[in-house]
Write a structure and sequence with these properties.
- This protein is an all-alpha fold.
- It has 2 domains: 46 residues, no CATH class; 58 residues.
- Helix content is 62%, strand content 0%.
- It contains 3 helices and no strands.
- Helix 2 packs antiparallel against helix 3.
Length: 104
Amino acid sequence: MKMTSILTAAAAAIVLTSGAAMAHPGGGKGYGGPGYKSGYSQQIKHHRGVNPGQRAAIARSAANLAALKRRAWRDGRLSTIEKVQIRNAERRHAALVQRVHRYR
């Protein structure tokens, strides 16, 4: 055999085996370690629950939203600005609750 055909065959073998090795890092078992799982999302960390500071923040946000609604409805009707303020406050509160409960 010629030297070029030997080198070509060796290069092809290296390329084929490196592709197979890159397909499943870690032997197909995922990356492992605490809080990791194999599959679509490998970095989902499971937390135990909502801590007291987060509960207080949610309660404060809910109280602010309720006070805004009481203040807006005090005269018996809602203006356009009050509707926008209430909608924004509801979105902020929902985003806070979602952030707190996202990694439970």
